[in-house]
UniProtKB/TrEMBL annotation:
Species annotation: Nezara viridula
Identification of the protein by name: Ubiquitin carboxyl-terminal hydrolase
Subcellular compartments: Nucleus
Regions crossing the membrane: none
GO CC annotation: nucleus
EC supergroup of this enzyme: hydrolase
Main location as per UniProt: nucleus
Domain USP, first and last residues per copy: 150-471
Reactions that this protein is recorded to catalyse: Thiol-dependent hydrolysis of ester, thioester, amide, peptide and isopeptide bonds formed by the C-terminal Gly of ubiquitin (a 76-residue protein attached to proteins as an intracellular targeting signal)
Enzyme Commission number(s) from the entry: 3.4.19.12
Alphabetized GO MF terms: cysteine-type deubiquitinase activity; zinc ion binding
Length: 476
């Protein structure tokens, strides 16, 4: 729904003021080009230089700090429409929300060279080639740098989206793919392609010298269009958003059905695995095997509460009696017999996403399970593979988590890089994400606030979604 206050402003004086503000204060920050000279201003009231978060009035010439003075100006002058600098987002004080407007979007597209430079192939100079040859070893990331860590604006109960996007932005293989210029857009327009929208976010997120926060209104709007269950301003489930966004990335990464040639879908390569289901007849021990796609692992939280993630995986892959009410039609016995069903991992993906089922329905009412489930930084998935699981006793699970597994059977070690946590209750909860930037450096991403944390705080959290990446990648 359009904002009536912005419509009133447009009817009176148009959007010329917005174009001036965007060209002078927003565009230079996202387009580091000497052609554009960025103007620096401070709050007109406290003279505090704060170009990272200033609000520019669209009714008059006024700049105010976000913390206090812009709202005082709006109240006293009855000016309600502001532009956030340096993001360029339009904010209405009366609606208390950021606004999407098609005419504003057209101004951005007209002015912003960024979209046309979306995939600029880097061609190193002779001097840069010389430096690359001299320094071929991996460069150490400075722990104090802000590159690769940014806050994301909460658009109104969108913390669920912010956490998942933070996890996507730090998924190693996905991040590397975005920077290789290999994406082929099959959508009608780039605004209909989540990959194209994400590519802009990636470039801004990892741009040196760009200290602006991120606003994901275009991504939220696109996901809304494809998943009606995620529409609205109330709190949504982070796991549901992950599934919807991943499916949409998969869709726009796949060519039309009748396209010629072979295409490697990056989402398949990263997130897709295979789950084996074995149903065993208890009368003749005949085994019926079925292979299903594996995209994520949803684990029950068994009792007692002290059991950790390895025990949850052991519980998930155990043989489960189907009971007398779930008899199977055995093809060998040619009759209905009692049986057992067991799930194991036939093929593990490069990225394992584990959901701990904290939300359950009891007597037509949903409730949250706040049980603390210990989870490791490094995990070996070898004991849960098809053909291996039934040879591993529960008491021997932890010897595989010691990170010293032999390579005789391949390497199935994974490392934790993101944790999504739900705090509070179902009616008043909030999502935050713990993100690993380097091996030993973790950050708490709470919407706009991004602060470093110790690993002990991460491991002590009530994890809801756990993201693990394969430690050793296969050469293909």
């Amino acid at each position: 729904m359009a904002c009536p206050h912005l419509e009133q402003l447009k009817a009176g004086c148009g959007l010329e003021n917005y174009e001036t503000i965007y060209n002078s204060f927003v565009l230079p920050s996202v387009l580091p080009d000497p052609t554009y000279q960025q103007a620096f201003v401070s709050c007109f009231d406290c003279e505090n230089f704060n170009n990272d978060r200033l609000m520019a009035c669209m009714h008059c010439i006024y700049f105010g700090c976000y913390e206090q003075h812009y709202s005082l100006h709006g109240s006293s002058k009855i000016h309600c429409i502001f532009v956030e600098i340096p993001s360029g987002n339009v904010f209405c004080m009366i609606c208390e929300d950021f606004i999407y407007d098609a005419e504003v979007d057209e101004i951005i597209k007209k002015c912003d060279e960024f979209s046309r430079r979306q995939y600029v192939i880097w061609k190193p100079t002779a001097y840069e080639c010389k430096l690359l040859k001299e320094h071929c070893k991996r460069v150490k990331v400075d722990p104090t740098t802000s590159i690769g860590m940014k806050g994301i604006i909460n658009l109104g109960n969108t913390c669920f989206m912010n956490c998942i996007i933070q996890a996507f932005l730090h998924t190693p293989m996905l991040r590397d793919y975005f920077f290789t210029d290999k994406h082929i857009c099959f959508a009608k327009t780039s605004t209909e392609c989540l990959f194209c929208l994400m590519s802009k976010i990636y470039q801004r997120y990892y741009a040196e010298g760009d200290s602006t926060t991120l606003c994901l209104h275009d991504i939220l709007f696109l996901v809304w269009k494809h998943d009606i269950n995620l529409c609205g301003n109330n709190q949504k489930d982070a796991h549901e958003f992950f599934i919807s966004a991943r499916n949409l990335l998969h869709k726009v990464s796949s060519p039309p059905i009748h396209s010629q040639g072979s295409f490697n879908n990056i989402i398949d390569s990263i997130f897709h695995g295979k789950l084996q289901s074995d149903v065993v007849c208890q009368n003749c021990l005949n085994i019926s095997t079925k292979i299903d796609p594996l995209w994520e692992i949803s684990l029950d939280i068994p009792e007692p509460p002290s059991e950790g993630l390895l025990e949850c995986l052991y519980h998930f892959t155990r043989p489960e009696p189907l009971g007398s009410d779930g008899k199977i039609n055995c093809s060998a016995c040619n009759s209905y017999q009692e049986g057992t069903k067991q799930l194991t991992f036939k093929l593990l993906p490069l990225i394992i996403v584990i959901q701990l089922k904290r939300f359950e329905q009891v007597k037509f009412k949903y409730q949250k399970k706040c049980t603390y489930v210990p989870f490791p930084i490094d995990i070996d998935m070898y004991p849960f593979l098809s053909g291996v699981r039934n040879n591993i006793e529960k008491k021997n699970l932890y010897k595989y988590s010691s990170y010293v597994q032999s390579n005789d059977h391949g390497d199935y070690r994974y490392s934790l890089y993101a944790v999504v946590v739900h705090k509070g209750t179902l009616s008043g909860g909030h999502y935050v994400a713990f993100i690993r930037r380097t091996n030993n450096k973790w950050f708490n991403c709470n919407d706009l606030l991004v602060i470093p944390v110790e690993i002990e705080e991460v491991l002590a959290s009530e994890g809801y979604l756990l993201f693990y990446h394969k430690t050793v990648l296969p050469y293909e």
